[in-house]
Amino acid sequence: MNANTPSFAFNQPQGGNEMPRFAGRGTMMRLPSADSPQGVDVGFIGVPLDIGTSLRAGTRFGPRSIRNESVMIRPYNMATGAAPFESLQVADLGDVPLNTYNLLESVRIIEAHYDALLQHPIVPLTLGGDHTITLPILRAIARKHGPVGLVHVDAHTDTNDAMFGEKIAHGTTFRRAVEEGLIDCHRVVQIGQRAQGYSSGDFQWGVDQGFRLYTAEQCWHQSLAPLMDEVRQHIGAGPVYLSFDIDGIDPAWAPGTGTPEVGGLTSIQALEIVRGCAGLQLVGGDLVEVSPPYDLSGNTAQLAANLLYEMLCVLPGVKRL
What we know:
The chain is an alpha/beta fold.
């Protein structure tokens, strides 16, 4: 389908006057679910993984919690004018069936699942799950699109060589992605990194590969709209993937995560970052590291749900009213 398709042919979120928002479908934004990506332009997919975490577990419950907190999101973006459900066929494609006892087997399953999805012309928007999941997704993305640009929001660079001797974990994702040729290092931007390191050069590895990095301190006390103008110019044309770790946000706004770090981005800056990706050729995105056991108010999952909606709103082909 495309933007010329009549609006009545597109899936719509279940409305609050049709069914109370505390009831009805349990899908993302209460959208129709689909068993197949056939005919779907954008699919929300859950990857309920937490065996790649290094501190607090619980992200296996992230996709369900994000879906639960998405019930208040309405179809039209009043700030940007985006009308994604008048433009694209969107559905909830359910969860990836992981092996809860074997991280490497789960990585294999995720990769194969996304390989199958990407046999269709679909943009995957993923509900995590810990940040390990981005590596197998990027493997599938790169097989379809070649090495992609990357916008990576996170308190950490996730470029460790190993964690407890393991090469695959939530803190090694982007080093493996570089080594495997999945991303175009000169079109990578990292935003929000902060806190402490094991050495003074902990943030330098990616920069040495060609990444552009903006620490949290560089973002303090200012709008990030000008920064995103720089990001769009730097990344330029070509396919781009957006990976957003919720711990990029200060724990005052998003406490429900496994590795919180003080001094982070605000929820307003998070919106500016995602909205600032409009015009990039986004071919996929994820929102990871929501840990509901540490999210007693549900605010972290609610922010995550809204950021995924904002990702939907900046995809190519979304019209603005």
